[in-house]
Write a structure and sequence with these properties.
heterotrimer; A mainly alpha (419); B mainly alpha (311); C alpha/beta (414); B: 311 residues; mainly alpha; 2 strands; 74% helix; globular; C: 414 residues; alpha/beta; Rossmann fold; seven-stranded mixed sheet
Amino acid sequence: MRSSLGRYALWIGLAILFAALPHIFTSGTSLTKMSLMGIMIIFALSYNMLLGQTGMLSFGHAVYYGLAGFMVVHFINRASGGAWPVWLPFVPLIGGLTGLTFGIIFGWVSTTRAGTAFAMISLGLGELVAACSLILRGFFGGEEGITTNRTRLLRLFGYNFGPQVQVYYLIAAWCLICIAAMYAITRTPLGRMSNAVRENPERAQFVGYSTQMVRFLSFCLSGFFAGIAGALAAINFEIMNFLSVSAVQSGTVLLMTYIGGVGHFFGPILGAVLITWLQSSLSDLTGAWMLYFGLLFIFVIMFSPGGIAGWIMLHEPLARAGLLMRLLPAYLLIAVPVLIALAGIVGLIEFGHHYLVKGATDGTVVRVLGVALDTAGPWPWLISVGLLAAGLILGRRLWPVVTDAWNGASAELKRRISA
Amino acid sequence: MLELVIFSSLNGVLYGMLLFMLASGLTLIFSMMGVLNFAHASFYMLGAYFGFEISRRIGFWPGFVVAPLLVGAVGALVERYGLRQVHRHGHVAELLFTFGLAFVIEELVQMFWGKLPVDYRVPASLDFTAFTLFQTTYPAYRMFMLLVAVGMFVFLLAILTRTRVGLIIQAALTHPNTVAMLGHDVPRIFMMVFGVGSALAGLAGVIAGPALVTQPSMAALLGPILFVVVVVGGLGSLPGAFVASLLIGLIQTFAVAINLSLSDIFGSGGAAIFGDLWQATVAQLAPVIPYLLLVLILIFRPTGLMGTRET
Amino acid sequence: MHRFWKRSILGMAAAGIMAWGAAAQDTIKIAYIDPLSGGGASIGEHGLKHFNYIADMVNAKGGVLGRKLEILPYDNKTNPQESLLQAQKAIDAGARILTQGNGSSVAAALSDFVAKHNERNPGKEVIYLNYAAVDPVLTNDKCNFWHFRWDANSDIKMEALTNFMKDRPAIKKIYLINQDYSFGQAVRSQAVTMLKAKRPDIQIVGDELHPLLRITDFAPYVAKIKASGADSVITGNWGQDMALLLKAAADAGLQVDWYTYYAGGAGGPTAIKQTGLSHRVFAIVEGHANVPHEAAQKTEAEFRARTGLGVWYPRVFNQMAMLVAAIEKAKSADPVKIGKALEGMEHATFTGGKGFMRADDHQFFQDMYIASFGPLEGGAKFDEEKTGWGWKTVGKIDTANTILPTTCKMQRPS
């Protein structure tokens, strides 16, 4: 009884959080950003139904997102001015059905294969649709895309969804529904079988399931939710263009999902929020933001393949036993060399970026914390390399402290469990 | 018309051979390590940029020799300190690692050399007309590219069939586990194959750089086509990669020359149903054809044209 | 009791808003929304330098109405959806004047966004000044009151180009090669209709659309051009599609004249120099570095000394000068008033011609030049991209010969 209450508490808490956010972050920019985060959460979760849950690596997931978005734009344009009796809040379903339809069509041909072949087919299909998007101007609107006006549909309770805050709540509601639905799917037999197909397709087959059928069903459902995300994007931006079906969009969702963590249900949510925020904020600070992005991705793959979620969940048993505080001193200690090394890396990239990209026209001098440094001279480089080396050496020295703390806490945990 | 056919064939074969220089390395790496290297085209780009940097300081010929070696060294380092680390997380992680690497290399190239095409020139010693046919000239440099590509093909064939290393590699292609059991240092062979594959891509970059344009998007342009080649040819099959390279090269070149559309063949009746697709000419659709071929091959002949194993 | 609290809170809020308003009044903020990272960064950064340079000039003279101009850069990554997010950020930061240029897709999205924003937020209108996106639709079917364009749209450029070709009897066979997207198609269809009307004797021997930014080797296309026997080629290609096309042409020894829109774009001059096609590549522009106009030459020299690159966008100078004039005329930086002041405004352009902002569609009309690229001669001072080659005027089309009708029907704010 208590645990089920706890489970509901999580969902209710999430709903309250979604409802409260616009009152905390009130500016138009944050509203737009949070709307985008909601869309990306659905999109990333739908992607993880493939990659995380069924073990299918897709390089063309934007196809379902984009096509659904285009279909919704056309739908709203047709239904405008009361031509059809539809209310905007139900329009995302059209997107979902579009995603599902294309999921069925393309899933039929691509899910016959698994592994690398599936990845290649998804890449081929993605490139195919992307190339067609510039040729088929009637549907995709060519380079400038197709615009729409979300306020032209029938009003529901007097809301016309013109103001961004109304759209935010629409997206938040759909986001909550989709998160719940996708979570529920992981609990169904299909969800369990998907995991089995990911872990060991042969055994799954021996149990009597068609692995191809499981992949196909996952693929279709994933297309459905990607379609809803695409529809919400169309409503939010009121424009769709060829970039929405492009390889860039497919790559972004892959990045988000993987950095967030494919092994846990909530991983992609973290990834979507973090990457969306970084995309719009980091670019204000540095011209080399894409490089940081790529490096972060490689770092996660090499050292934390479970993503952020994986790293967090590593601490879950300790947190439950109330042992997390024992790690805190060690973590604070190791944070010092990590930050020093990070400062070195940022220095190298930023000085490099300034010297190579802007040096020729804006001069090589750059001001850091009020000090003028000439990137053509050796000092900025020596300082950066020095910081990086100091961070690495110090980090290596201090690392045993972390492992000791970790081992101590784990041992304590084991002792308590056996006691 | 004859003129068009001759020059299109020449250009098609040349483009095909260029593709093969990349596809051969990619195939070797895939069949030995099971990694489809997304960053392979990025090594091609690095080759072009290294070649450019050396040629503007010292000259084209030193660059022609040194740049591929440098790229090979970079490749070997990537294998040793990157891929090997990721290997224990599985194939998906390896694939994603190379995906991220391609991203980072493109960003770094943009940072070092800028977004604009760089002025990488054909060396003066090769800057003349090889022959003139129907008043169309064919540059000597293109003949040189063809020669290098063919030379590399022969060299590769010789290594694989005539040397001990080649035999081990061939064995590893089909029975990787057995080879490891025989006591060969498989990680070292991996590193070497990765390095050599990257060096080949680098060589392709060095010679393609002056003929095509050296710019940061050259990897992204060629990368997807490269996958089409290795999959259509059959993953892990060198002869398959060779045939597919030429096939794609010729298809791409000849499709451009055809101005027919479906409405020309079947009349304009289908336009109502298929819309713009009905009106599009083959030339317009040329870039789509390889991907269509890829999808069809994977559906109907999963092993590729000459592959032996299913992917 | 309650009333007291209500009043004091309202009073404080009002004071806060006024204080904030006063702070925002300090400068006139112009949001520059263009790519500042990734692929298009070098072009976006250079555009930004134009705006910063002009803002500094204006501010050095005391600003406008006693207020300084401030340029706020926003990185849109050449992505329409991202641009809307950045536009929202700019508006939140207090900018009511937006400017953008790279990419018609972004321009269409921004124009649409601004129209909707103004409709939904009366009293907080923003205005959008377009300095480079040339899709004709923006000043025709999709026009609105808030969008003003200073670059000649692609139809106007073709009108000017064909008016120039009209008087060149040497042109007999023309080949059209364009990128397969809205802009390339606009160039192609306008070329066909305008040539037919002005020079019915010219034969169009080829009409090619190739995929956008996906061709690595143009040799097959060049073989087709060669086989057609064309003496001139018209192309709207830009970026790598321009560079690669010229390179393949030079390799095959193709001897034709190239009439282009964007041969002068970033990387274009380098590519032409590489091919050695001296004075065979022409570009249709509203001005170039070697137009013999004293003030323009002086500014060009100063600009080069400061930024290391030439003036790519003479129209940005026109745009900013007219913006300043409009604010002074309206005695206000309110977008509605600026818009009304700009309508129909006449302006002596950067290179000394006479231009005007047509009120019907908010398209600026100006003298256009046909320039060819080759070794510097005849006292020309400025080369491009350190190639030693520069632009030379070979033809000039007066403003009157560039005017085209519009289908625009816009609603004006009362």
